[in-house]
Write a structure and sequence with these properties.
alpha+beta
Length: 122
């Protein structure tokens, strides 16, 4: 998947560049997305667009959180598009990073999702 470099984009502020860099770091990472209807989707982050829709691959759907008891079998979705308006939270599964970095990532994604003038990543 081709992604424009941040230098080729006409971003107005360094904050937008930082948010874009974070999104690019998340490409091909496993993420857990909690939705407004209570479902949780787990999959590989492939791309997003200017409307905050997210495409994930190898996606599994859980009606209850995946770490709840009793554990349920997920429904396999494969490739899925999640509308940004239905996203409550996103967690990046990156075991090589410190937990404080995950908090920074969560804040950056929340900031990006709430902004009205973000740019397309893929």
């Amino acid at each position: 998947m081709a992604v424009d470099s941040p230098n080729s984009m006409s971003c107005g502020s360094s904050e937008k560049n930082t948010e874009r860099q974070k999104l690019e770091e998340w490409l091909n990472k496993s993420m857990r997305i909690r939705m407004t209807d209570g479902r949780t989707l787990v999959g590989i982050f492939l791309c997003t667009d200017c409307d905050c829709n997210i495409i994930v691959g190898s996606c599994e759907e859980y009606l209850r959180p995946p770490d709840s008891q009793p554990r349920e079998d997920p429904r396999i979705l494969g490739l899925a598009m999640i509308p940004g308006k239905h996203i409550v939270s996103i967690e990046i599964d990156d075991t090589s990073q410190a937990s404080s970095d995950n908090l920074d990532r969560s804040e950056a994604m929340t900031s990006w999702l709430e902004s009205s003038d973000h740019q397309e990543v893929a």
